[in-house]
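Handout, section B. The chain below has 118 residues.
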Amino acid sequence: MRPEEWRSLKDLRLRALETDPDAFGSTFAEERVKPVTAWQEWAAEGWGLGAQTTLVALVGDRCLGMGVCIVAEAEPRSATVYAMWVYPQPVVRGSVKNCFRNSSSGRRSRTRRNFFSR
């Protein structure tokens, strides 16, 4: 996710919260009123929890899945996936699976070999 893509991140996150409200620790109502700067910061810097990246699955030019991968300092060769959501269509689910598989070399400074969600 690049800083200039904050609108796509916001749209995707809000769609996820609206579609599957019980899957997240936040709500659609809370996040839809966040200021533009909050979305810009997330796209640019993440959540501020160490080495991390926000991955987005694209089908054509449509953002249809996402996850936030955070690497713990204690386990630098693995990452935990948070805020993962996939648009509910089978073809999209395969695209997201490949997104995480293909990102195993990491987009930032650390290697991510094992992805799992909590």
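Note. The longest helix spans residues 6-19. Compare this with the example in section A.
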